[in-house]
Amino acid sequence: IGDSRVFGALLQADRKIVVYGQHFDGATNTGFVLRLSAEGTPDRSFGAAGVAAVTGTTLISDLLLLDDGRFLAADGRTVQYLRADGTPDASFNFPPDSAFHPSLLARQADGRIVAAGLVDTQWTVRRYFGDGTLDPAFGLVGRFTAGAALDELDVRKLLVQADDSVLLVGTVRV
Questions:
Q1: Could you give the CA distance from residue 131 to residue 13 in angstroms, rounded to a whole number?
Q2: What residue spans of the chain are helical by DSSP H?
Q3: Model-level pTM?
Q4: CA-angle at 58, arms to 169 and 148, nearest 5°
Q5: What is the Cα–Cα distance from 70 to 2, expressed in whole angstroms?
Q6: First to last CA, the chain
Q7: Confidence of residue 151 (pLDDT cuts 50, 70, 90)
């Protein structure tokens, strides 16, 4: 799909392959989600000819496949739902916060969403209910901030353990 960067991929239970990342059309970067059949051809029932351009984004940094077939996409500025067919779904009411830049996502066993990203130069983890409202029972009013600054901590993955403990995976300069 032209000048594109892939940031990740998922495999659906029906063996369809979902790829996400950033596309540059020569003037603008746009976040995209591409769904392929199990044979590797574009799934024409998804987005436009298999590709969903995610409105208002410059990239998709992480993508979750939810049990109901929808997707939750992080783009480094916000989090938004996509329906199973790749169209936007405004039912995830991610609260506007110009300071929080979510780039990693995970889901706990009870369906709560965990997002990690930067606030200024510090990695922050926030937990949300399925509708996008902040879960005040997590951390300090729904938020936890790692103690290291950006130049000391490089987070690459957000994981949820079986007991719902949240792990940030990456490197720390000491």
A1: 24
A2: none
A3: 0.86
A4: 30
A5: 26
A6: 41
A7: low
In Å, the largest CA–CA distance within the chain is 49
Three-state SS string over the chain comes to CCEEEEEEEEECCCCCEEEEEEEECCCCEEEEEEEECCCCCECCCCCECCEEEECCCCCCCEEEECCCCCEEEECCCCEEEECCCCCEECCCCCCCCCCEEEEEEEECCCCCEEEEEEECCEEEEEEECCCCCECCCCEECCEEEEEEECCCEEEEEEEECCCCCEEEEEEECC
Strand arrangement of the beta sheet that strand 122-128 belongs to = 100-107, 113-119, 122-128, 143-149
Write the pLDDT tens digit of every residue in 72-129: 999 888 888 899 999 988 887 677 677 888 999 999 999 999 999 888 878 889 999 8
* Distance in angstroms (rounded) separating the CA atoms of residues 57 and 126: 20
Please give the C-alpha separations between residue 40 and each of 27, 44, 45, in angstroms, as whole numbers.
28, 12, 14
pLDDT per residue over 39-69, tens digit each?
Answer: 999 999 999 999 998 877 788 999 999 989 9
